[in-house]
Amino acid sequence: MGVFVFGIIYALPNLSPPDPAVQVSLQSASDSFDSRLVQSVRNIVRKEGIPDENIEVNQKSLLIRTNSYEEQIKLKDELRRELGPDYVVALNLAYSTPTWLQNLNASPLKLGLDLRGGIYFLLEVDTDSLIETRLEANAEDFKRRLREESLSFRSIESDKESVTFLFATEEDKSDSLSFLRGFLTDFEIIEESESFKIKFSREGITSIQDYAVQQNLTTLRNRVNELGVSEPVVQREGAKRISVQLPGIQDTAEAKKIIGKTANLEFRLEANNRTLRSRKEPFDFRGVSVDLEKNIIISGDKVADANVGYDESGFPQVNITLDGEGGAKMHRSTRNNVGRKMAVLFIERKSAAKEIILPNGTLDLIIEPVITKRVISLATIQSALPNRFRITGLDSPNEASELALLLRAGALAAPMEFVEESTVGPSLGAENIRLGIQSLILGLFLVLIFMIIYYKIFGLFANIAVIFNLILITAIMSILSATLTLPGIAGIVLTVGMAVDANVLIFSRIREELKNNSRATDAIIAGYDRAFVTILDANITTLIVAVILYAIGTGPIKGFAITLSIGIVTSMFTSILGTRAMVSLIYRKNNVRRLWI
Amino acid sequence: MNFNLDFLRFRFIALVVSVSFILVSFATISIQQLQLGLDFTGGTLVEVGFTETVDPEEIRTYLEGNQIDALVQAFGSDKDLLIKIPSSENIENANIVIDSLKEQYSFQLRRSGFVGPQVGGELRDQGGLGLLAALLVMMIYIMFRFQYKFAIGAVVALFHDVLIVLGIFSIFRLEFDLSVLAALMAVIGYSLNDTIVVSDRIRENFRAKRKLNSEQVINRSLNNTLGRTLITSLTTLLVLFSLLFLGGEIIRNFAIALSIGVVVGTYSSIYVLTNVLLSMKISADDLAERTKESFDDGMP
Fold this sequence. Notes:
Helix content of chain B: 55-70%
Largest sheet of chain B: 4 strands, antiparallel
Order of helices and strands of chain B: HEHEHEEHEHHEHHHHHH
Number of helices of chain B: 12
Number of domains of chain A: 4
Oligomer: heterodimer
Radius of gyration of chain B: 24 Å
Shape of chain B: elongated
Largest sheet of chain A: 5 strands, antiparallel
CATH topology of the largest domain in chain B: Multidrug efflux transporter AcrB transmembrane fold
Radius of gyration of chain A: 33 Å
Strand order of the largest sheet of chain A: 14-15-13-18-19
Number of strands of chain A: 22
CATH superfamily of the largest domain in chain B: Multidrug efflux transporter AcrB transmembrane domain
CATH architecture of the largest domain in chain B: Up-down Bundle
Distance between the termini of chain B: 25 Å
Structural class of chain A: alpha+beta
Strand order of the largest sheet of chain B: 3-4-2-5
Mean pLDDT of chain A: 79
């Protein structure tokens, strides 16, 4: 009984379908959200003929419900144009779950992209090139360290997989190796007489891969947020891949441009009085204008790593590691400019709506990238910088971690390649939902009719169990916030067909027992007991298949596997315990003569 | 339902039928191969909905004029077209198709997709591995719950079912994509379900009816379970047909594969399993050892 109530409560939110809505939120979290904005949104919304009560004001965003998908798109375009690039205007869905249900954490099912419409990308991180870059950076670093220690070597060369150290004598080699050994924890060392070779160890490679994927994931999240899509999902898939789900948008070209962009950090020198005017450019640094040289020392893709540290007296600093090429360039540029200031320029690409007038006189709205550049750090160069250096003089640990994040987020740790893409239009999504529900209803209806005709009152018990099973599946999926996809609906439909199997097994047994002249109550008990083992075996094997499907499957297969496994477990419960409760409730007395089965 | 059919009288005919089906499946899969979908081959796909009826050939020629070499076919209705560029490595292809169509036609983009060649190959391997893993785990489970002869019988039955579904997909050139692979997995689960119900009864009857010979026991068991087997197959087919007719194009091949699988699976649990058991000379002695234990843990 408890399970029954629980199932109903958590399945309830799915009864009221969400409305298409438009969400307005702030581009950056620090900006304030004032009543002026609410008023201007209200004016725009009124112009579109949407009543005021459709606007929902939340902490950080506004949600405006619309009556149709066409109205939603129109309102989005209108808001984008009127509000400008400082606000993110995105398509969303507004759920109408009553407050008391929300308090119980009950929420409707999440719909997959195939039902809701949207874009899916799968990107592969090219970690090989990062490993190569890392080797280069390390080779440069080791060269410098050996020089500093006045240890002599003939050459240090890096290739795709390894760094080779050549020495004049065997003694030089062992001196250098014993000095470097402490820095070589991530490496495998292959020694020869007058040389040695280092390669990343398996753990070293895994940690670089993890770093690269994690870093790219962060960068992608930042970039996806710029797209202003509501509820985007960016997650790691296996060792080297990242999937991006963008519900509600169709413009693949724009999405790809933003996700796939690179190099948006630049290191430049501050202009001094010898800099020609034509070689200067003004930028904003915390509200003050600074002139920078046009010449770029290096761009953000040369930053291999950046993290927060503390100097000897406990002041925050940001440690930066450049790759080999970046390190060399940085060294060359800074060695003659000690005492001058170096700036880190952050380049952001946002998209903004712009009105254009077509040749035939009509207005069209296009989305075009707006590039903003600002200085995020300006620090004095204290010495010629090698490939590892630090930025000090930061005010707070927060500032340091923000700078480190921006330095890392500015560029991808390793290049990425699109390996899979899919787009589903909103009309197809809606159609898929309709078809899925229709086939579910028809299938359910046919099975229910058949069971009543064939098993009469017991058929009715089984039917109640099947319907309850559907409610339970919906409730459990809602609680797990599993995503419902079209193959998922197929899984549910299939569960309906197979859920009656347990009851069929039990009922056939009961009929058999009756034929062997058992008393009615004995027949019921024997039927349930003897069928139980069979049902258990049969369901466990199907569950194993579902679990394997989930483990190996991607997207569509996973959706099917999830509903199938939930369905198997709930159907065992409803068709054995559920029907038994009903049966014993009705045939409680021992003197039942005839079963209507 | 009370049956008393002599199933095993037809067991040699069934053997011939099964073997010839499997041979035909093998032949067609090796000669004609499977019509692998985009998921496995990699490539680009665009589905567009036009406002009026269109001729796929016209669109194909138009695209060819724009240097796009694509397969164009009607999809569902005569207003919907599916445009495929097989094994293309350029992710921009979908956009190129859409842009060049936009110049001439008015339509709505229903969906588009791109699968890189590396992903396609991986899915193929993963799918195959998954099928094998599923079969292996099943075999171990049945060996543990029943006995190795049943495990072999079940796995032969599963291979039989999967091969025949694949064969039919190959003969009729139906597209084999990820959803069909999922359907095959479901067929394995379903057919196994049947096989286990029958095996369970055979085991029970071997223990209960010691006077009968193996053939009689199996015949009796098949008759006992026939009612249940038919009814479950029927209810499952009812929902599958509703998916087939109402579920839309994307789910169609899934429903076809599963429907064939249910029919073949029902047949295989009657004939394939029993043929294997009899050819391995199954007898009551095979099941004697575990008798006590099993009765204790489940059946009163």
